[in-house]
Amino acid sequence: TSISESPVSASLLWVGTSDGKVHLTRDGGGEWTDVTARLTAAGGGEDAYVSRVRASHHVPSRAYVAKNGYRFDDFKPYLYRTDDFGATWRSISNGLPDEPINVVWEDYRNANLPFVGNDTGVFVSIDGGASWVKMNNNMPNIPVHDLMVHPRDQDLVLGTYARGFYITNIRPLQELTPAVLASDAH
After folding, report:
1. Pick from 4, 25, 28, 56: most CB atoms within 10 A?
2. Phi, psi (deg, nearest 5) at residue 177
3. What is the per-residue pLDDT across 100-144, written as a single tens digit (0 to 9) for each?
């Protein structure tokens, strides 16, 4: 259901399937590693649909996986991150509402700026997924099924379920770092 080629290493591919499996190849498809058991051990529903797998734009060993349990009447936000090629996973869903996650995206410029889309809108984290805030200025509560940051214009582009798309500039969010947040002015 989802495939992601690493922007950092062309031979690195991540694949997620509708039956909850997540696989990784580091040699362009020659040999595949099933990391599903490790993800399940971190709390990812074993059979939950993999709604999105996303390789990091910054770190070769990092990837994100969103799993969706709506087929089992499970609406928890299953969102995980690995920083060691799937050897270990940690949940980064703290603060997200009980809604299935449809998509995850890591910003091109700021490695600590992921976005997720779920059935009520889009959320952003400025601390690598430790906490989340809803982005809802002038946007109704609608399912977001796809999103990306335009590499040239740095606009966040959202695709919604049967209602269109939204675009917003995120340059100010890309500039947020711990130093900027600690300063009196920026």
Report:
1. 56
2. -130, 170
3. 999 999 999 999 999 999 999 999 999 999 999 999 878 888 899
